[in-house]
From TrEMBL, chains A, B:
This is Winged helix-turn-helix transcriptional regulator. Pfam families: HxlR. Residues 9-108 form the HTH hxlR-type domain. InterPro entries: HTH_HxlR (IPR002577), WH-like_DNA-bd_sf (IPR036388), WH_DNA-bd_sf (IPR036390). Coiled coil: none annotated. Keywords: DNA-binding, Transcription, Transcription regulation. It comes from the Bacteria.
Length: 113, 113
């Protein structure tokens, strides 16, 4: 298993910074299930505002983690989807799911699923 | 590999919420290398204010991810360290490091390490 040194390698620190931003991991996770249009992505994540979603999508696009596909239909259709780099994050969510399953209590208002 | 459904299991969503908070993953990562005193933890993470660090430590302690050890010395010594639940996050950072190594460019101002 990886040795964890106090020294943060720049690439790793940059990755933590990107992934550690509020909502980013939730957005990437949703896109792992396929392309989304803006309005559907916004609806799929409770409490996420359109403004913040728009910011995060721009950041993720600039990082090459997602791509924005424009379909010249009427009206124009725009979809967001993960790039290969973005799909490379899938194992991260597999680990989060395993950790959550082992350690997290179900929220008080919900029966054990 | 895990099938990614649009439906967010409550435990998983809760885990994403906790880990997705700004600075949380960076703080947990630092603690993977061992216990820290507040001031050293604050110094080890650039741009992180004492106020936010204090908030995150309280949240992480409430979630059972870290523990706060008080040593009755003079002056009193207080250390923060990961619990077993917290150490369970280590594979997550191994995945982030692997992803960063494969996909991230070194920041422009730094030579390839």
């Amino acid at each position: 298993m990886m040795e964890f040194s106090q020294h943060l390698c720049p690439k790793f620190e940059r990755a933590l910074e990107i992934l550690g931003k509020r909502w980013t991991s939730m957005i990437v996770y949703q896109l792992l299930s396929g392309p989304y249009r803006f309005v559907n992505l916004e609806q799929s994540i409770p409490n996420l505002s359109g403004k913040v979603l728009s910011e995060r999508l721009k950041e993720l696009e600039a990082e090459g983690i997602i791509q924005r596909d424009v379909y010249p239909e009427t009206p124009v259709r725009i979809e967001y989807k993960l790039t290969e780099k973005g799909r490379g994050l899938a194992p991260l969510f597999t680990e989060i799911a395993a950790w959550a399953e082992q350690w997290m209590e179900p929220p008080a208002d919900l029966p054990e699923s």
